[in-house]
Design a protein that fits this description.
The complex is a heterotrimer of chains A (126), B (469) and C (438). Chain B has helices at residues 50-61, 84-90, 93-96, 108-125, 137-154, 172-179, 197-207, 229-238, 259-262, 271-274, 309-345, 375-384, 412-431, 433-437, 450-455, 461-468; strands at 129-131, 162-166, 183-187, 211-216, 242-246, 266-268, 289-291, 361-364, 391-392, 401-404. By secondary structure, chain B is an alpha/beta fold. Chain B has 3 domains: 10-61, no CATH class; 84-323, Type I PLP-dependent aspartate aminotransferase-like (Major domain) (Aspartate Aminotransferase, domain 2), CATH 3.40.640; 329-451, Aspartate Aminotransferase, domain 1 (Alpha-Beta Complex), CATH 3.90.1150. In chain B, helix 4 runs parallel beside helix 11 (309-345) and helix 5 (137-154) crosses helix 6. The relative contact order of chain B is 0.13. Helix content of chain C is 37%, strand content 16%. Chain C has 13 helices and 17 strands. Chain C has a 7-stranded mixed sheet, with helices on both faces. In chain C, a hairpin with a 5-residue loop joins strand 11 (295-299) and strand 12. In chain C, helix 5 (106-123) runs parallel beside helix 11 (332-370), helix 6 crosses helix 7 and helix 11 packs across helix 13. The chains are: A alpha+beta (126), B alpha/beta (469), C alpha/beta (438). Chains B and C meet through helix 1, helix 2, helix 3, helix 4 and helix 5 of B and helix 1, helix 2, helix 3, helix 4 and helix 5 of C.
Chain lengths: 126, 469, 438
């Protein structure tokens, strides 16, 4: 059973956002890492890139699959998790601890479009 | 197979001062390459004597498996026998040393081959013209789509940028569409694996004016003939689109049904599949594109000369050898072989779609799912028994796809041998599953660590040296 | 109905049809609508014996004329050592397919790894892919790669000194892919750096493509090019003939991000246009944007060194329409051809052959100029190919060459583009000059 964290916002494409003030931390869910298998590469955007809700901002690759990353919220990238460049397997070890990007949110109202942990849990079991 | 000498790279066999070449004396001395043109350090290429080179590559070849070594039922690849006479004809000096920009009157024989091969392919497919510029199947697909795109552009019909592709299609189809700047629209398959015509009707009614083409293989990737093809073609033509035939599965149609007669306007042929030219470890192939009368004016310039000419020579030699009498038998014998294997194994392997197939069919893994033995394990165990594995995990419609394509060249004994081994593996999955899961055991190397390779890519000798430091 | 390629005896057919549950071979196609079945005879000759096939091909071949080749323009008449066709005819190489099953494909995977290493060495780049169809399509893939690697940019600049054949293929791909391909002007036979800088400053440039030596055989000076490109976040692509890289300053030394070109010059016969092999090398940073197959090193479960297709998540069978390219295979056998060639020629042989080609071209050029009928169109340093104007009737001269069994270069406009390789002897060159001086 895939782990779901309380207090985060979730997208249908299996990304999560943790919101602190105007800052959103984005990663992929435990369900997603599990479905992908051994992650061998994370394609990261650059700091200052603009991301738009629903648009792709990077990709996560395993040996036999690749999955685009879709931004759950819009904003400007303020930090990328550089540790993933040399150790992409961190995503498998703990998908919530090992975030992918941090963004300055441009429209907090977008969060309303996302799921809470309970809804996401149900979404995954469907 | 050869374990003993396996392992050295040619660079590791290099010794300073050795050489494996001889050149005539330079009699036009006095011309020094100026230093401003020169690279600062020599390329660190190997220094080896001739015998060392010959032994190295001979030994490498022993770690390979080809059609000449044994049964190679790799689905969707049509690994048929590559006749030896074809190789000899392609190596005739009178063809080998022609520069591609020689004037026409000095290459009459080469041009005649092109004309004769084109005429043959037209008759075999029911189309009117071929271009030989595409170098491979994927290149042919791209060429075909560009031809269609050019056709729509010529009518100033600029809004046609969508290509309909069945969800069971090979990944190359959508990738080729994307390279051609087109958007892919997936049409669903029905339970029996063929195109859902109702879904197609919906797409056509919603997006008809944006449809550039529909791409199909027939038989499809499951080896099933698309019976509704006349209706599908008419739907697409009515909305102004063109029908593209991916020639990957042309082999079983030889002698029975031509793409032109099915309603296709544009197609490519993989000469390395249907017309027996060797796959060469992954190329060179050739992907000539054929069209209906009138579309030949829209062929794009996807390569500079006459395509992979020596591959064309081989294909033409094959066609001459078979002649009109035996070309006709190719399809039905390939189809018979596939159905024979399918019927002989369907009690132990899961056959998701029963009924007659064409040249290939797909199992969804072992019937008994309780053993934990996967399609990957079955494939690897086959290597121990001296067979090449079928295509695995394609098509994506099933989780444990195992796609078998025996060609017309295989004898009943060969097929019976394969059937016996497949049954034995099914038995082993129950009795000694660990033996199967850890296979192969008898090959030069065991299962490889894909994750390590992808995580820390080492793709050159220089990186390997650097890594050691 | 047995035939030499079909082993089915009457008994086999009977037993197999019975197993399948159909009465006859036609019964296998019962599901095909009658209306689209093909009932006629194919319009093909009747079957031929091996002897007849041979006669047919020899007759066709005899209509071709083998000429002493002084033509280049991207395709060169280099010598092929006997070892190569001999090794390549081994059916374990010839009759295998893409090395999906690594355990029984180490031969192919191993030589591709060697090929990649050799091409990286020659180009002075970090990495290479497993090869592409030819030089022109490799250039087209490089063009698309610069756009894929960039951010919302769609302009690619190409020097006017690029081979026209390559340009034509680039234009074709660019049209459909929606790439704005623009030409950087030429000045006295070389790329005009000022024009390049102006166009770069207009913005939106993904890549800049140049050729070395250029279409006229001229060795250009690319000092400052890479910096100019990188200042505008554009990638710098150098296209070149592989054999010349043994001596010429490498794309790596010029600061290129991507190096592409044709490997035909590495001992592959001209065979009227193909098959050849395209090479593509790039910096380590761009590896995941690279199209085509890549072989990597790893270990097997017995602890042995092993080779395997890697980074497949870039490719069409996984990424479908989002793949970096639609290419499914490489030009494997031709990559082997090049690998064996480079193993034999090695560090010194390839250089010696390139030096001979250089010397031969310069000797021919000097001798032609001495006749008083020829002038160099551009006064620039060249390598093994050069572009001259003739003061008489060019077409007549070209025909005179043909009549003497010589392919007297490639006609470009009014001029002649002559190429010389290590295969051309002093006698052959002198003979050409003699005819030209008439």
């Amino acid at each position: 059973m895939a782990k779901v964290m309380e207090g985060l916002y979730y997208s249908e494409s299996h990304e999560w956002v943790r919101v602190e003030g105007n800052e959103g931390t984005i990663g992929i869910t435990d369900y997603a890492q599990n479905a992908l298998g051994n992650v061998v590469y994370v394609d990261l955007p650059e700091v200052d890139d603009e991301v738009e809700a629903g648009e792709e901002f990077g990709a996560v690759e395993s040996v036999k699959a690749a999955s685009d990353l879709y931004a759950p919220v819009s904003g400007t990238v303020i930090e990328v998790n550089e540790a993933l460049e040399n150790a992409p397997e961190l995503v498998n070890q703990d998908a919530y601890e090992n975030w992918i990007i941090k963004v300055e949110l441009s429209d907090k109202a977008e969060l309303e479009q996302l799921m809470d942990s309970k809804t996401y849990e149900e979404f995954c079991t469907k | 197979m050869n374990n003993r000498l396996y392992g050295n790279l040619i660079f590791e066999l290099s010794r300073k001062g050795r050489k494996g070449y001889s050149l005539p004396k330079n009699r036009m001395g006095g011309y020094e390459i100026p230093s401003m043109m020169r690279r600062t350090t020599d390329a660190a290429l190997p220094e080896c004597d001739e015998l060392t080179v010959v032994r190295h590559y001979t030994n490498l070849s022993l770690n390979n498996f080809g059609v000449d070594n044994g049964f190679y039922p790799l689905g969707s690849c049509t690994m048929k026998y590559n006749p030896k006479i074809n190789e000899e004809m392609a190596a005739l000096p009178s063809f080998l040393y022609l520069h591609p920009e020689q004037p026409t009157e000095t290459v009459k024989g080469a041009e005649a081959v092109v004309t004769l091969l084109e005429r043959s392919l037209c008759s075999l497919t029911g189309l009117a013209h071929f271009t030989f510029k595409p170098y491979a199947g994927a290149h042919g697909e791209l060429t075909g789509l560009m031809t269609i795109d050019n056709y729509h552009r010529s009518h100033n019909d600029m809004g046609r940028k969508k290509v309909i592709v069945p969800d069971s299609a090979h990944g190359t189809n959508p990738a080729s569409a994307a390279v051609c700047g087109l958007e892919v629209v997936e049409v669903k398959s029905m339970a029996d694996g063929t195109v859902d015509v109702e879904d197609l009707k919906r797409i056509v009614s919603e997006q008809g004016t944006e449809i550039s083409a529909m791409m199909m293989t027939n038989p499809n990737t499951l080896g099933l003939f698309e019976k509704s093809i006349p209706e599908i073609a008419s739907l697409i033509h009515t909305c102004g689109g063109l029908m593209y035939y991916d020639g990957a599965n042309l082999n079983p149609m030889l002698g029975t049904c031509r793409p032109g007669d099915m309603g296709f306007d544009v197609m490519h042929i993989n000469l390395h599949k249907t017309f027996s030219t060797p796959h060469g470890g992954g190329g060179p192939g050739a992907g000539p594109v054929g069209v209906r009368e009138g579309l030949q004016d829209f062929f794009p310039v996807v390569s500079p000369y006459h395509g992979n000419f020596s591959v064309m020579l081989r294909a033409y030699a094959y066609i001459l050898t078979l002649g009109r009498e035996h070309v006709k038998e190719v399809g039905s014998l390939a189809t018979l072989n596939a159905n024979y294997v399918k019927e002989s194994l369907k009690d132990v392997y899961e056959l998701p779609i029963d009924g007659l197939c064409c040249h290939e069919f797909v199992f969804d893994g072992l019937k008994d799912k309780s053993t934990g033995v996967t399609t990957m394990d079955v494939a690897k165990r086959l290597l121990d028994y001296g067979y090449h594995a079928p295509t695995i995990y394609f098509p994506l419609l099933f989780h444990e796809s195992l796609m078998v394509e025996p060609t017309e060249n295989e004898s009943k004994e060969t097929l019976d041998g394969f059937i016996a081994v497949m049954r034995r593996i099914a038995e082993e999955a129950k009795t000694t599953p660990d033996e199967v899961k850890s296979a192969p055991h008898l090959t030069p190397i065991g299962r490889v660590d894909d994750v390590l390779a992808a995580k820390h890519p080492i793709v050159t000798y220089q990186q390997l040296l650097h890594d050691k430091d | 109905m047995t035939y030499k390629y079909f082993p089915h005896t009457e008994e086999d057919l009977k037993a197999m049809l019975e197993k399948v549950g159909v009465e006859s071979l036609d019964g296998l196609y019962a599901q095909i609508p009658e209306s689209i079945c093909f009932k006629d005879d194919y319009d093909l000759p009747s079957e031929m014996s091996e002897m007849e096939v041979r006669q047919q091909f020899e007759a066709l071949g005899s209509q071709n004329q083998q000429l002493t080749c002084f033509a280049g323009h991207g395709v060169y008449d280099h010598y092929t050592p006997s070892v190569i066709p001999n090794l390549l005819s081994r059916s374990e190489f010839l009759t295998s397919y893409t090395p999906y099953q690594a355990e029984i494909s180490q031969g192919t995977l191993h030589y591709i790894f060697e090929y990649q290493s050799m091409m990286a060495e020659l180009t002075g780049m970090d990495i290479s892919n497993a090869s592409m169809y030819d030089g022109t399509t490799a250039a087209a893939e490089a063009m698309m790669m610069t756009v894929a690697a960039g951010k919302k940019v769609d302009r690619v600049l190409v020097s006017e000194t690029m081979n026209g054949k390559t340009l034509e293929v680039l234009r074709c791909y660019a049209l459909h892919r929606g790439i704005k391909l623009e030409i950087v002007a030429m000045k006295n036979g070389v790329t005009d750096l000022n024009d390049l800088k102006t166009k770069l400053l207009e913005g939106g440039v993904a890549g800049v493509m140049v050729q070395q030596p250029n279409v006229y055989g001229i060795v250009e000076d690319f000092t400052g090019y890479a910096d100019a490109c990188h200042a505008q976040k554009a990638l710098f692509v150098v296209d070149g003939v592989a054999a010349n890289l043994a001596v010429l300053k490498t794309p790596g030394e010029w600061g290129a991000d991507i190096a592409v070109g044709d490997g035909q010059s590495l001992g592959i016969p001209m065979q009227w246009g193909g098959p050849y092999v395209g090479y593509m090398c790039c910096t380590e940073k761009l590896i995941r944007k690279m199209p085509g197959r890549i072989v990597g090193m790893t270990r097997d479960n017995r602890g042995q060194r092993a080779f395997v297709l890697t980074l497949q998540a870039r490719e069409q069978h996984i990424r479908r329409q989002k793949a970096t390219s639609n290419i499914c295979s490489n030009q494997s056998l031709m990559a082997l051809w090049v690998t064996v060639y480079l193993s034999l020629m090695g560090k010194h042989g390839l250089k010696e052959a390139a030096e001979m080609s250089y010397a031969g071209a310069h000797y021919l050029c000097d001798e032609l100029l001495k006749t008083g009928h020829f002038t160099l169109v551009y006064d620039q340093p060249f390598f093994n190919e050069f572009y001259v104007k003739y003061d008489g009737d060019g077409n007549q001269l070209y025909q005179r060459f043909i009549d003497a069994g010589i392919l007297g270069g490639v006609r470009i406009g009014e001029g002649f583009l002559f190429a010389v390789t290590e295969k051309r002897t002093k006698e052959e060159i002198d003979n050409l000059v003699k005819i030209a001086a008439l």
